[in-house]
Write a structure and sequence with these properties.
- With about 375 residues, the protein is of the alpha/beta class.
- The protein has 13 helices and 16 strands.
- Strands 2, 3, 4, 5, 10, 14, 15 and 16 form an 8-stranded mixed beta sheet that branches. Strands 1, 6, 7, 8 and 9 form a 5-stranded antiparallel beta sheet that branches. A 3-stranded antiparallel beta sheet has the order 12-11-13.
- Helix 4 crosses helix 5, helix 9 crosses helix 10 and helix 12 packs antiparallel against helix 13.
- Keywords: Methyltransferase, Transferase.
- This is NADH dehydrogenase [ubiquinone] 1 alpha subcomplex assembly factor 7.
- Pfam families: Methyltransf_28 (PF02636).
- It comes from Bradyrhizobium yuanmingense.
Length: about 375
């Protein structure tokens, strides 16, 4: 199959080294230096494979800008602030956030923008979108961002970090792997031996899972980097992604191509492969290193608490009827809990240094519009 070089390479690796863990397969699909999905294309928008919240409406980025302002004030209004975005897409969210922040000159003048992006195609798009922004730099990893007070935004970033999948068999939990079936196609399998004492590490809900159940977990390295940074250098991180509020069993490994679910084993490198984010695990890992976790809450609740209804009403009041209709549709898409809505599927988690006792939108005690 000459048109699928990554598939051929993965098969060759399996033939030479044996079945491949799901995490390694996912890593190759997304980040292979030549054929990886996230190093070779712009996947966003109608012409791409999926649409993120910032592409749905300017309101999303604007409200995150106002949220940033509220946190900056809680931090004591430091004279310089690093605003870091992980996986910033086309730069749309940052552009919208900065437009909102221009109304607060002391903060706007204090900003240093850092974009963490490995995709050269998207870097070019971001550079064009943010061409008039001063004090902006690009990095391959947050490790490259200089120290200092920071607010970190991560929208749909954690879902593409590789997952380990474990499957429960009669004699314990086995690492789930990718192997080649008798017809030469990729299929799921399980490592022959169970992982010793894996059940000791499992959340209580998962320990009682039935035979055949799948449990997914990500290494804590990335969340611990963010938590350690804000703990030691002052600031907060905001994580928005689709996933579950508490750790549980379930197979969420999936592929999306042209806005439709696809077989994740069929065309490696040519579709976005992701898995749901375990927000309870993220919060626990952040607290384990001494940071404070806020939430998680649903995206719909978060956006309503920080004023999206008020912002939508203000935009619709000034807009032509057809544009007002588009704004109303976008509002429902971002906040609704039903089919096609992102409001309940997506969750929001805040991480901060310990002295920040609350963050706007992430406490049940806060009222809508607080961030503004």
């Amino acid at each position: 199959m000459t048109d699928q070089p990554l598939l051929n390479e993965i098969k060759a690796l399996i033939k030479s080294s044996g079945p491949m863990p799901v995490w390694r397969y996912m890593e190759l699909c997304l980040m292979h230096p030549r054929y990886g999905y996230y190093v070779s294309r712009d996947p966003l928008g109608r012409e791409g494979d999926f649409t993120t919240a910032p592409e749905v409406s300017q309101m999303f980025g604007e409200l995150l800008g106002l949220w940033t302002a509220s946190v900056w004030k809680q931090m004591g209004s430091p004279q310089f602030l690093r605003l870091i975005e992980l996986g910033p897409g086309r730069g749309t969210m940052m552009a919208d956030a900065l437009r909102a922040l221009r109304v607060l000159p002391p903060l706007y003048q204090a900003l240093y923008i850092h974009m963490v992006e490995v995709n050269p195609v998207l870097r070019e798009r971001q550079s064009a979108t943010l061409a008039n922004v001063r004090n902006i730099a690009w990095h391959d990893s947050i490790d490259e961002v200089p120290e200092g007070p920071s607010i970190i935004l991560a929208n749909e970033y954690f879902d593409v970090l590789p997952i380990h999948q474990m499957v429960r068999l009669e004699n314990g939990w086995h690492e789930r792997v990718i192997e080649i079936d008798p017809n030469g196609k990729l299929q799921f399998g399980a490592a022959p031996e169970p992982t010793p004492r894996f059940d000791v590490l499992l959340p209580p809900l998962v320990r009682a899972a039935p035979i055949g159940a799948v449990f997914e977990w990500r290494p804590d390295g990335e969340i611990m980097k963010l938590a350690t940074r804000v703990r030691d250098q002052d600031g907060a991180a905001l994580i928005i992604d689709y996933g579950h509020l508490r750790s549980d069993a379930g197979d969420t490994f999936q592929a999306i191509a042209r806005h439709t679910f696809a077989d994740p084993l069929k065309a490696p490198g040519q579709a976005d492969v992701t898995a749901h984010v375990d927000f309870q695990a993220l919060a626990r890992a952040a607290e384990d290193v001494g940071a404070r976790a806020h939430g998680p809450v649903t995206q719909g609740d978060f956006l309503k608490r920080i004023g999206i209804d008020t912002r939508a009403a203000a935009l619709m009041q000034k807009a032509a009827p057809d544009v007002a209709t588009d704004i109303s549709v976008a509002l429902r898409r971002l906040t609704d809990t039903g089919r096609g809505g992102m409001g309940s599927m997506f969750k929001v988690l805040g991480i901060s240094e310990p002295r920040l006792a609350s963050l706007a939108g992430l406490s049940d005690l806060e009222q809508a519009g607080e961030a503004s």
